[in-house]
Amino acid sequence: MNSIRTCLLMLGLLWNALHGQTQTVKEKYYLSGTDNEHTVDWDFWVTGGRKAGRWEKIAVPSHWEQQGFGAYNYGRDYVTYGKNFRFHDEKGLYKHRFQVPKAWKGKKITIVFEGSMTDTEVKINNQTVGAVHQGAFYRFQYDISEHLLFDRENLLEVTVSKMSANPSVNNAERLADYWILSGIYRPVYLEATPATHISWTAIDAKADGTFASNVYLAGIVEEAMLQVDIKDNSGKIVATTSVPVQANDSLKNVALKMDNPQCWTAETPHLYHAVFSLTRKRRTVYQTKERFGFRTVEVRKGDGIYVNGAKIKMKGVNRHVWWPETGRSVNSKLDLQDVKLIKEMNMNAVRCSHYPPDKSFLEICDSLGLYVLDELAGWQKAYATPVGKKLVKEMVIRDVNHPSIILWSNGNEGGHNKELIAEYSRYDLSARTVIHAHHRPGNAINGIDCNHYEDYYSTKKILEGPLIYMPTEFLHAQDDGGAAAGLSDIWELHWNAKLGAGGFIWDFADEGIVRTDFNGVIDVNKVNAPDGILGPHREKEGSFYAIREIFSPVHIAMKKLPEEFDGKIAVENRYHHSDLKNCRFYYKLVNYKRPYDQQTGLDSAFTADVKSPNLAPTAKGFLDLQLPATWKSYDALLLTAVDQHGLEIYTWSWRIKNNAAILQAILPVKTASKVLFDEDTANYNLSANGIKASFAKQTGLLADLSNDYSMKLAFNNGPVLVNGQSQLLSAKPFSDGDKRGVTFVYAGNLHEIRWTMHPDGWLQLDYSYAHPDTVAFAGVSFDFPENYAITAKWLGNGPYRVWKNRLQGVTLNTWENMYNDSKAGIGPWTFPEFKGYFADVSWMQFNTTQGKFLVATAQDDLYIRLFDFYGISGPKGYPALPTGNISFLDAIPPIGTKLAMGINSKAAVNGPAGELNLPQQAVNRTLFFYFGLPKEEQENTQFIMPKENILTD
């Protein structure tokens, strides 16, 4: 591969020479591959762990652990093993042979490493080319012009140490709460420039069209001109200027003013190119270009963060550079995927935790629009000043011209070396504000407090001032907790507070590594790394969609259609720079599939566009749907908002028909029979239309079930009250026309259970209860073996499960989930989870190994709990579950976060939605059960279970 590239490069140089052309741009030649999917094999030797002590081949770029070498370490291993613990201090020795085009002789040639973990020593032809580089996340380079051979192969030797010889580098990067990997994990390449060239530029382009740039020059031996042309996306020159350059100049500042530029924001990511040309006697001797955006970022102390004169609030997330198979060695496709996912959640910001990302990620943030916090590493301890100054310079010089970067972060949670603060503006002409991402008092700087993991009530206090509050970490997405649970409450605080600047959820994706020493198992280091809103391969968890609704820039608060709904919906524009007239809206009137339909989803729909209102940023108004006269004949109303780029913002859904109306459409069964009643010493027995149910005389609970075309059903032992006490007082059979039943009366929290068998086989359950105290959950449960479940199909909110403080992100539809035992953060990352709390259910059909059965409710706002699950792992699953296996609930619990397992163990700390459920007046609910298929479906069923078990002893 290298030889082919060398030949192509040399042919290009020969063509230029033959046609009298001189190279005036920087030329690049890759010695490694370009990313984790396109690699080049180098020779490799590792000093410890797997495959130690012998020369092998290794793909570059990569981490050597992912290539089967060395040993794995998680950064918190030092906590596990104590202060005397040392990581596997492996060294990797790389060798690679390459040729340099003869035409490069006389040019400045540098070797560039985009990233290497961590101490890196470089030799060319047995000669050390410079000081050992320390720091794992930064681009570094060496001038190797004097070390190269142009008439034969060159030998590159690189020694990479997993641990640094500098203790402060280890403290900042290696002793951290993430996977500690090794090796040359980003590309390595050669760059050739003419002796006279532009080294780098720093641009400051303001929203008013003011453009300035510091242009760093090299090899200026005689007078020249420096010209800057500003080009728009079509390549048209829209502004230009030039300044003279004198011999020995190393820095020139150029400035111009452009009229009416299209400004860059996260909502409108307009970009330009600045083309820098060095000319001498009207001949271009060197040219380079930089992409940039016109935008003005201001931190107004005691007020807020402004972009182009508009106050912005960060709807942000923390992101590690990560892919399970290749660790921190990634590619631009993965970077693009992540930016799209962040924007799909209606977020506008990302924090690069806890180190600078790949260059391509920042380029995509520029082009698609995200506000970026670019962060110097320093997990909870800082770099020492000498090495820190070098690394700040490397980070800023690489990233300075990205308009998406609006703030520099000088380390994380105490990893702040305050002696480095002034270093950023030495290289950043725009002098972006420096912040500290912290969780310790005294680290707020430049008017911004970024304190981590404050709860709802402490956030309210902080927002009283005097500092702008922008938590660079809040909530915590381990397993199924945090992230969106409590987010609505906290986000409303920030949105409505003068000093609220939003914040950054921890974090984007589970940091699970494919272990090459354990047959490819994905390892999240137990509770340390499964912190994502998404799974390791970007599997979408329920919080993903809840965040999408909560952060929607089209804010609609209406949860239910009012009694006298006139088609007008209150809406708030939560964009910072965009009018809602630029969005598109349409609605659907829909009917939903019924339980025994073969498909799920919508049965029919009436669709119409909605006129977009003229609503400026932060303004409130109305959407007028102008519904047809027949709108009340449909089951539900759906409203969709689409942004100015043609991407869906969100779809909201509201019931038109209540559960009583839905029930009437599914209750009738064509066949019927006389209801039979009898009793024995233990049970009351009711049967009709081939279905028989028995109820225990001592408890009133369902004791036995069967029908005439399948085995007995194991659904029983209910309704058991999930909270409170009860004592049976009396039981009384009754007749009601052609129906028969039994009424059980209780003392305690449970008041009454009433069982009624209908002639068509529907079994009706009426029950009432009350709780005098707050409870985590309220309702009743039944037993049913989890391992019998195949699918659950329902009309209600879905397809994801919910918590009391995370009811967002689900929509009304007919859904069907297949059984899985997936656990968010642990695996196998199959979403949506089959088990959990499901909201606003009209009916649910269970497909089991014993056949199908159906349950429906006559009242609204029913939750159904399916089987055993938990939200957060720890000493035991959290929060606790109701008794039984399948529950029919009128109230469900909230969930806390990983950090709410200690002092903040109650979900209530993150806002009112996390409070327990208040005492209720008596709850009266009716459930209808059908334990079998309707006769017409039985006739179409290819396989019918035998009435008796044909197996004998």
What is the share of helical residues?
10-25%
How is the biggest beta sheet arranged? 9 strands, antiparallel
How large is the radius of gyration?
Answer: 33 Å
Q: What's the number of domains?
A: 5
The residue-averaged pLDDT reads 92
Could you tell me how far the N terminus lies from the C terminus, measured between alpha carbons in angstroms? 70 Å
Estimate the strand proportion: 35-45%
Secondary structure layout:
Blueprint: H1 2-18, E1 27-30, E2 40-46, E3 56-60, E4 73-74, H2 77-81, E5 91-98, E6 108-113, E7 116-117, E8 119-124, E9 127-128, E10 140-143, E11 154-161, H3 167-174, E12 179-180, E13 183-184, E14 188-193, E15 197-205, E16 210-218, E17 224-231, E18 237-245, E19 251-257, E20 272-280, E21 283-292, E22 297-300, E23 304-307, E24 310-312, E25 314-319, H4 332-344, E26 349-352, H5 359-368, E27 371-375, H6 385-399, E28 405-412, H7 421-427, E29 433-437, E30 448-449, H8 456-462, E31 468-469, H9 487-496, E32 502-505, E33 513-515, E34 521-523, H10 542-550, E35 554-555, E36 568-573, E37 584-592, E38 602-610, E39 620-624, E40 636-642, E41 648-655, H11 659-666, E42 676-679, E43 683-688, E44 691-696, E45 702-707, E46 716-721, E47 726-736, E48 739-748, E49 750-757, E50 763-771, E51 778-783, E52 789-798, E53 811-818, E54 836-838, E55 843-848, E56 851-857, E57 863-866, E58 886-891, E59 920-930, H12 935-940
Parallel strand pairs: 25-26, 25-32, 26-27, 27-28, 28-29, 30-31
Antiparallel strand pairs: 1-14, 2-3, 2-5, 4-12, 5-11, 6-10, 6-14, 7-13, 8-9, 8-11, 15-16, 16-19, 17-18, 17-20, 20-21, 22-23, 23-24, 33-34, 35-36, 36-39, 37-38, 37-40, 40-41, 42-43, 43-44, 44-45, 46-51, 47-48, 48-49, 49-50, 50-59, 51-58, 52-53, 52-55, 54-57, 55-56, 56-59, 57-58
Helix pairs in contact: 4-5, 6-7
